[in-house]
Please model this.
Amino acid sequence: MKQLIFLGIIVLTLLYTHAEAQDSRAISFDKAWRFKKDTLKGAESPAYDDSKWRTLNLPHDWSIEDLPNQKEGEVQGPFTKASAGKAATGFTEGGIGWYRKAFKLDKSFAGKKTLILFDGVYMDADVWINGHYLGNHPYGYISFYYDLTDFLNTNGKSNVIAVRAKNLGKNSRWYSGSGIYRHVWLIPVNPVHTKIWGNYITTPEVSKDKAIVAIQSSVENTSSRKKIISVKIEMLNPWGSVVTTQKQLLTIPADSSADLTQKLTVTNPKLWGLENPVLYKVRVTLISESKIIDQTTMPFGIRSLKFDGQKGLLLNGQAVKLKGGCIHHDLGPLGAASIDRAEERKVELLKNAGYNALRTSHNPPSPALLAACDHLGMLVLDEAFDMWENAKNPQDYHLYFKDWWKRDLTSMVLRDRNHPSVIMWSIGNEIYEAPDSSGYRNAKRLSDEVRMLDPTRPVTDAIVFMPGYTKKPWAAYEPHVANLDIDGYNYFLDHSPYFQRDSVILHRFETQRAKNPEKLYLSTEYLPGSALENWDETEKYPWFLGGFCWTAMDYIGEAGIGKSILVPESQKLPKGMMGMGLFYRNNWPVFNAYCGDLDLIGNPKAAYYYKNVVWRNSPVEMLVHRPIPEGQKEVIATWGVPDELKSWTWPGQEGKKMQVNVYTRSKTVKLELNGKVIAEQTVPEGSITATFLIEYQPGTLVAKSFDNGKETGSSSLSTAGKPVGIRLIADRRTINADHNDLSFVSVEVIDEKGNVVPSVDDLEINFQLTGNATIAGVGNGNPADMSSFQQKHKQVFQGKALVIIKPNGLKGVATLKATAKGLKSGDIKIEMR
Model:
């Protein structure tokens, strides 16, 4: 037993990692946890024998781990037909999981107040320290902390912290993940200290010549005597030099707290923006009797943010339209495990896809994602809840809302309000009781609470109003939206078999604007197929801020809502609720939504190319529809688009007609096949689509766009040859030897000229890794491939797959080799330093 305890002990001074801590005083507490998924009794006791439990590092998500194949056809990889959430949660399994960690604290912790901060545990978390129950936190998406001080050993004896996470029943409409899936931090502070999230930074005056930065510090005194301290504020420029400083005295009564606001002037500031997201830092130092007793450092951006009823959103005085995308929090093959580099890569991919804004649907994001948005220049609509008092699932947050909404909303705003990327708060999504008295009451108190905590940003929520969703008239919603600074509407400009509209609803934005001529509006959700309609409205009206498509990237859960299907031509299709009907049917083995512009591993899909023409980022794009077998027809999913690929490789289709769609805002399109013009069309008025039916012949197909006879752009596709080899491409070949860093290695099946062969869909690639790293996950873009994310093999989809390499903490080189029958192998080296 002594040996077991020794193995579990962590000397905290050695625990620093490169993770983005919420608090600069924090010590990473991620390493060497014991884990077991079970309904155990007594595991909270420090004497409990966890010697047979698995040792792991956080963040951790048990719901992506392979399940035993208990019954053939019932379990595949981490997926099971017995899943409580079924298709909604991607057939993943919840349950109960226990985490335990043994650690020692030296005498330097004596006399200090020691807190433990969890960035997120899904869900219903109970926490114990040395057998003492600290409390329960039900919400799975927001940070929370406990004071460990009274129950800690600081004399070199072992401490044991235990956490039980309970993901039970039907509690989510999407894949949530399970367990301690975000970072954990230990925060030791002196009796007089700045509170957790206690520094609030605003920029009330901003110009190119000068900026005023206001820093409000909330200081806590847990001693039994009044304290008079100095609060020193320093501002550091992006290169780490102090550019201005100030110091004031603050008196704090015993067992109480006090606030102090100081203002600093910065000359010729570097402004935070979308293209140049410059970050400064503020350092707050508490001094007593000439000694430093507390110090916190926070990054922030100097930027002006104004929402003008006539001009719209002004960032640093310039109007910005939101090219936004909704995202869920999972990270594909990593599940919900919020590893810093994975969050950063996700934002990088979306920024490169043309997005300038993300909506964190429908919950607060990880701190790591917001940090990535800060330093990459991505705007954020930070959202709190998916439901209030009325249930969407029997075991969801509605059970806790009345007791917890204020604490959880406060945590979200205090935690996130210093991020320059956050421009707006959302208090809810498609709230069932929105048109009722309880909805009015909650909308007011939630909005008021947010404005009290942060008056610098507007409040919105996402209203949905459609036949079949509510029996109330629009007039019943107006008292609800009256509580909002900005009206957010879901699907008000969309057309589909499910979202049936009449002229009144189609013009809801215009009619509401006429009633409220100083208010601003946005689409909090719109369908992929309605991108053009939504963006045209955005360009037309200054007061219409833009919108957020559903969704920017594929995610696990809500299985198949964007996946088109084939049915017999003779089959009659239901009207109205067809789209949701496709969702609620058993989609096994489809496990992901497949409605993103990017697939689950980050590769562009059809909507990506279409939207870049809509946004005027690309002059012309060409896509080819997958052939539809004779006697069948395509049913386009409500949240989907036609099954199109950016490919001119269609073996077996020679001599057959293929549908080619060319997207452009120009007037005329010409097609050339192997250097010969074969077709020409005028783009229909009000459309950006020219559709051609042409005979497939291998070679090179080129689409050229023209205005008044002048070429405006071109897009070409060439037929790939037979697959001959495997190519590996790393997003970064040199990474930190740190558990929070990753290298994402793209796997491509290529022909002899180095072209990706997109017609290869079922070839299995085997992976071998040597060196100081492990394979954290493998994946592809196939929404129906339920094979393991964690084994050392994966099939390619459209010629591509992904391997995620994770350092084991040691410097050195790791070599990844990929092999497949009949192909030349590929290899790549990743350096950890």
Residues 758 and 798 are 4 Å apart (CA to CA). DSSP finds eleven helices and 49 strands in the chain. The first strand starts at residue 27 and ends at 28.
